[in-house]
Amino acid sequence: MKKAHGLKLSFFIGLIGIIAVGCGNEEAAGGESGETIRIGFQTGNTLNVLRESGYLDERLEEEGHSVEWVEFDQGGAVMEALATGNIDYGNAADGPGIFAQSEGKEIVYVGASLSHEEGIGVMVKEDSGIQSFSELEGKRIAVMEGGNHHYYAILALEAEGLSVDDVEFVYVSDASQGRAALETDSVDALASWDPFFAGVEYSLDVTTLDDQVTGYPNRTFYYATPEFAEESPDLLEIVLEETNRSDQWANENPDEVAELISGIIGIDKEVMDIVVNRRDYGVANIDQDIIDAQQKQADDYYELGLIQNEIDVSEIMPIDPEWSSNQLETSEE
């Protein structure tokens, strides 16, 4: 449960333009020598730590393989690249996987992050007079439609006896637009996600509302193409193990991680200190608890009209596949 708090300092979030670079000449297949694994990542997520650590590059080189890093600006773009065969593997939040499956895109979940409940929240201005989710009835809340923070806001409202019909969700295109909407009083509240959530907490006079949400882990997932998972489980296992290895380094070196990601995305280190110090890094094999939480979210998305087709996430979330590893973490529900 998050406790209400206000933070006051001045800061401006400068966003770097994100590019989706072209793909390599060789696709990873069959684990044969000389293969190039094309990995899609988003600026600021955990794969940045893996990329900068060099762990994966070094291990793949030992095995006679290589890696190509492909940058994207959002999880939906990662899903599209997987579905069209432009990358082999990628990292995105829980929502993009649900949307992709509902739309018939061919992907498979191959691993999960540890839960990260503190990485999302709903904020109001300190002088708004709003102190709880129950006081948001009739108010306007800025969100990116279908994002983890949107789902969290719905759950927090429901925990107070409210529904989506009791508030007005204002859909924004990105985090900066949501921040601007709160600053200009175009909305009464802003739901956001780290590092942008921490950036607003750090720089504006806001209160993060206490919640009564339980059972929502707010995980990110590791996804692959079915072809890569089927034909190269040994390479996939290596990628997951080295991601977890770099994540454990991140847990042991939070100051260095904050400095690293701050330099990559252009956000003050003080903001990244908040982000890094309120999460535990790690990669877990998919298990039944993880599937159950993702299925509940998918069912809720269908009931809310966020997706058009009901889905069974277990169809693409295999337990104990060939690429599972005993070097990964245990999920914590």
How do the helices and strands line up, and which of them pair or pack?
Layout: E1 5-7, E2 36-42, H1 46-53, H2 55-62, E3 66-72, H3 75-83, E4 89-93, H4 94-102, E5 108-113, E6 120-125, E7 140-143, H5 148-159, E8 168-171, H6 175-183, E9 189-193, H7 196-203, E10 206-208, E11 220-224, H8 226-231, H9 233-252, H10 254-265, H11 269-277, E12 283-284, H12 288-304
Parallel strand pairs: 2-3, 2-4, 7-8, 7-9
Antiparallel strand pairs: 1-10, 4-11, 5-11, 5-12, 6-9, 6-10
Helix pairs in contact: 1-9, 2-9, 3-4, 10-11
Structural key phrases:
333 residues; alpha/beta; 6-stranded mixed β-sheet; 12 helices; 12 strands; globular; disordered N terminus
Brief overview, please?
The chain is an alpha/beta fold. It has twelve helices and twelve strands.
**Unreliable spans:** 1-27
The DSSP helix count reads 12
Strand content: 15-25%
Helix vs. strand class = alpha/beta
Largest sheet: 6 strands, mixed
- Rg, nearest Å: 20 Å
Order of helices and strands, N to C?
EEHHEHEHEEEHEHEHEEHHHHEH
Give the overall form.
globular
Strand order within the widest beta sheet: 1-10-6-9-7-8
Classify the helix fraction into a percent range: 25-40%
Mean pLDDT: 90
> Based on DSSP secondary structure assignment, what is the total number of beta strands?
12
